[in-house]
Structures are given as structure tokens and as C-alpha cells.
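User: Could you go from structure to sequence for me? I need the amino acid at each position, not a summary. C-alpha cells:
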């Protein structure tokens, strides 16, 4: 199932060429490449179809895949021009099934759909990642157009693409199903590499086992999804995006550098948003407490993924001072870290004495863990915790510059740069949470203020005048602080606390619908 994303359409015609003077439409993909991509996708589709059919035969019996084949054949058969039976044979076949057979057929077709969808998504991802592609072509066209450099710099400085994941309970797929589909995609990706026959056989066995587990998993929830369930699904997609953003962001940074030079570390041309846990309009289950819980989950998961990324970076940066030097700034930061985090220095100082980048990553990981505890409310302000992503970006910048200054330009352009872009894009909380509530709830809340009797019944012009007068007076009624556990006032108090604790990126938009 594809994550619902605002403003992003599915497959369809290419958008029209830019209307900027001198900018032309890029050439279409070569037919040979398209044929090769289509053949590769067809091979993966045939593989998962064969494995699914084998699983169904083992689990239920050979009659189930045979029934699926017959349904496909009848559904694909063209309607006879002169009337005749047409789809009536399919109608008769389905009408003759008992309840147990119908359920088995529906579940088998659902599994078939999920597997076909995940294969298509994986190959679409490969196609978008193949170069030279649309991104390089777009930059080429901008350069060829000869636009004023100042105009291009202004646009790039303001550039921010922000897909927003929405919350739709009717589309919620269970986490158990999503995780197995993700495993199928990962196995298919591994299978594309140069492998020995024994390795291919092992991957195919893992694929067969995963597809069999998918069949044995109940795809239906036995209770209505809560807003927190919806948020968990959004977090699943965000974590998937976190994993793929590194190479993509490096490519974006490289191409934009052709237009305006190097981007500053804090630049975030790509960021993400979500409504899950914040869309209160029409969903009374999204309370202020739910919004707080969802934000806490986002930040816990986001910091957890950053900790894993920092561990990966530390494992890769084995550069030793017995071979190459480091910058004075990095050396000074390590000395300050040792004072602020003496436990980390005592544990790793000797072990990584000649590996300054690994030692720096140890300190960064410790600070992230302290930050995780602080944001979870375990401690008000543990010594050494980051105040926000800016501190982490500063530490990673020290690592990157030191590498560049000491013969490690290629190293710096790899994992360190990719992690910097991930931090800029995701921050600590993966996505910015958008809040939305209906205007009527705000009218009802304001009607409870002293002197606002009958406010909810006023017309638009009268309400506007009344609010303008109140705002001009500059007085915030103390009664607001005691308004119940939910509603706009309670949400605003919780929002203020969340922004103080999590930072301004936690929530940036409040929509009154």
C-alpha cells in the first residue's frame, strides 16, 4: 500500500515542460532501458507470484491457486460484442462459493495485490534513482536557460519540498503486514546483486518463508484503529524515508551545488510533515493527550534512528592519528566532551585514543541518548543533552570539516554528509506535526470566556469585531488555564509545553477548518 501523501500524485503523464525562457523538455527515457526495466519488474512479479501460489497450495490446497487463475482468466476475458455470457460466468463462479472459500479467495487476492504493489514500488524507486535522470536534466535546463544568478540563489534559498502524510483509518494496514512487505522488498533488492547460485537459493527460501508468514498473518484489526495506531503507521513510512534519504539528499545537494555552490549544513530542501495525531477535525478521538503521545513517539523513534546512524558512522570512521591528523577544532571539542561526559571518556578514551572520529561519535551518541531521556521527561535537563538539532549539526560539521582538511574529502562526502542532510530533513522528531480543528470548537471555547456570553451565536463580522477588541486590550483571561482536559484551550497549553520541550519544529501549522 502506498503511503497517502498530500500533493503527490501516483503514476500518470509527465508534467508539462517548464515555461521559463530557454528551458526545454528533457528527452524521454530510451526504449532499450525501459524494456530492460520492464523485464526486470516482470521477473520479480513472476517470482513472488510463484512463491505465493506455492504457499497457498501448501497452506490451503492446490484448488486455491487454481481458483485464483480461473478468476483472473474470466475477469480479463473481453466482453463479447454481441452480448453472450461475458462476465456472467465469473458472477456464477463467485456466487457458487461458500463462505470459507470466499474468504480464502479474498485473502489470496489481497496478498497478491500487496506483493505486486511492493514490487512495483521497488522498481519505481530504482527507476527514479537511475541517472542521469530528471533531477540532473532539470538543473541542466536551468543552466542552459541563462537565468540571473541572483534569482536562482533566491529560489534555492527558499526551496522546501514538504510531503505531508495524512491519517486515514480506513486505509490503515497493520504493522505486522507492513513489516513483512518491507522484508519482501529488502530481499528482492538483495537478489539483484551479483550472487552465487547458493545465495540466490537462500534468498528465495527467505522470500518463501516471508510470503508464507504474510498469508498466516491476520490482515484485519479486531478493534477500530486509534489515532495512535494511525500515527504508528505514519512513523513506519517516515522511518522508511529516513533510510533512503541519505543517497537521495547527497544527489540533491550535488545538483543544487551546480547552481549555487555548496548548501549550508542547516539547509533542508526536503522535509516532511504529518497529520496523524493532530487532525482533530471530525475525529473526537484525537485529544490533546493523544497529540502529546504522538509527538513523544515521533521523537523517541527519530532519536533512536539517529543513534543507529551515528553508530554506523563511528564504525566507518576508523581514521587514525597514527596516519593522519585532525583539526584543532575537533581536538578541542573532544577535550570539552571529556569534561562534560566523563563516563564516556573513561569507557572509550583509551580504546579510541588514536581514533578521534570514532571517539567523537561515542560522545555524539551519548548526547543523543541524554536528549532522548530529556524529551521523554525522565530528567528535566541532563548535562550534555542537545538543545536541538542545531547542536548535533554543529558536531557533525566539525567531523566533516576535519576530514576535508586532512585528505578525507571523499570520506566526508559519504556517510557524514548524508547524516547531516538527514538531520536537516528530519530533525529529532522525523516530521513536523500539523494540527487541525474546526472553527466551531473555537467558537464554543471562546464563548466560555467571561464577557463572551452568546459569542458562538454571533455572525462573522460581529465575532471579528469582538475578537479584535479583546486582542487590542491585550488581556488574556486567567480562566483559560482551567478549561478542562481537552478542547482548543487545553491543546494550546499542551502545544506551548511541547514547543518549549521539543523545539519549534515539532509543530509549525495550526489550521482552523
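Assistant: Here is the amino acid at each position, in order:
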Amino acid at each position: 500500500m502506498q503511503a497517502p501523501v498530500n500533493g503527490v500524485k501516483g503514476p500518470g503523464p509527465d508534467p508539462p515542460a517548464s515555461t521559463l525562457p530557454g528551458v526545454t523538455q528533457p528527452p524521454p527515457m530510451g526504449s532499450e532501458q525501459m524494456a530492460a526495466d520492464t523485464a526486470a519488474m516482470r521477473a520479480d512479479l513472476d517470482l513472488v507470484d510463484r512463491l505465493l501460489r506455492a504457499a497457498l497450495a501448501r497452506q490451503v490446497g492446490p484448488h486455491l491457486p487454481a481458483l485464483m487463475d480461473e478468476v483472473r482468466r474470466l475477469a480479463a476475458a473481453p466482453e463479447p460484442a454481441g452480448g453472450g455470457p461475458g462476465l456472467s460466468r465469473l458472477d456464477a463462479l463467485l456466487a457458487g462459493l461458500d463462505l470459507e472459500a470466499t474468504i480464502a479467495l479474498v485473502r489470496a487476492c489481497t496478498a497478491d495485490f500487496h506483493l505486486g504493489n511492493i514490487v512495483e514500488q521497488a522498481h519505481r524507486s530504482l527507476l527514479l534513482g537511475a541517472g542521469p535522470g530528471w533531477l540532473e536534466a532539470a538543473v541542466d535546463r536551468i543552466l542552459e536557460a541563462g537565468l540571473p544568478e541572483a534569482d536562482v540563489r533566491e529560489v534555492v534559498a527558499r526551496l522546501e519540498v514538504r510531503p505531508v502524510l495524512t491519517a486515514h483509518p480506513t486505509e490503515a494496514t497493520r504493522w505486522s503486514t507492513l513489516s513483512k512487505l518491507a522484508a519482501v522488498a529488502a530481499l528482492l533488492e538483495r537478489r539483484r546483486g551479483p550472487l552465487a547460485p547458493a545465495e540466490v537459493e537462500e534468498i528465495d527460501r527467505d522470500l518463501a518463508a516471508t510470503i508464507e508468514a504474510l498469508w498466516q498473518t491476520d490482515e484485519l484489526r479486531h478493534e477500530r484503529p486509534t489515532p495512535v495506531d494511525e500515527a504508528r503507521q505514519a512513523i513506519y513510512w517516515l522511518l522508511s524515508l529516513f533510510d533512503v534519504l541519505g543517497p537521495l539528499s547527497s544527489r540533491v545537494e550535488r545538483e543544487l551545488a551546480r547552481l549555487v555552490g555548496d548548501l549550508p549544513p542547516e539547509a533542508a530542501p526536503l522535509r516532511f510533515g504529518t497529520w496523524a495525531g493532530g487532525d482533530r477535525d471530525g475525529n473526537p478521538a484525537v485529544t490533546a493527550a493523544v497529540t502529546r503521545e504522538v509527538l513523544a513517539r515521533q521523537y523517541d523513534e527519530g532519536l533512536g534512528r539517529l543513534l543507529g546512524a551515528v553508530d554506523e558512522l563511528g564504525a566507518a570512521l576508523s581514521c587514525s592519528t597514527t596516519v593522519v591528523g585532525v583539526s584543532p577544532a575537533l581536538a578541542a571539542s573532544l577535550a570539552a566532551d571529556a569534561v562534560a561526559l566523563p563516563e564516556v571518556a573513561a569507557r572509550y578514551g583509551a580504546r579510541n585514543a588514536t581514533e578521534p572520529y570514532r571517539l567523537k561519535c561515542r560522545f555524539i551518541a551519548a548526547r543523543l541518548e541524554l536528549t532522548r531521556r530529556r524529551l521523554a521527561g525522565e530528567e528535566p535537563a541532563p548535562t550534555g543533552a542537545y538543545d536541538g538539532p542545531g547542536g548535533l549539526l554543529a558536531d557533525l560539521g566539525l567531523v566533516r570539516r576535519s576530514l576535508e582538511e586532512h585528505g578525507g574529502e571523499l570520506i566526508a562526502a559519504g556517510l557524514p554528509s548524508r547524516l547531516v542532510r538527514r538531520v536537516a530533513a528530519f530533525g529529532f522528531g522525523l516530521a513536523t506535526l500539523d494540527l487541525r480543528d474546526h472553527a466551531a470548537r473555537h467558537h464554543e471555547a471562546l464563548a466560555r470566556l467571561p464577557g463572551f456570553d452568546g459569542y458562538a451565536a454571533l455572525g462573522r463580522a460581529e465575532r471579528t469585531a469582538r475578537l479584535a477588541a479583546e486582542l487590542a486590550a491585550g488581556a488574556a483571561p486567567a480562566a483559560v488555564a482551567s478549561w478542562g482536559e481537552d478542547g482548543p484551550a487545553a491543546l494550546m497549553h499542551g502545544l506551548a509545553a511541547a514547543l518549549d520541550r521539543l523545539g519549534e519544529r515539532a509543530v509549525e501549522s495550526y489550521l482552523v477548518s
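One structural detail worth keeping in mind: Residues 1-28 have pLDDT under 50 and may be disordered.
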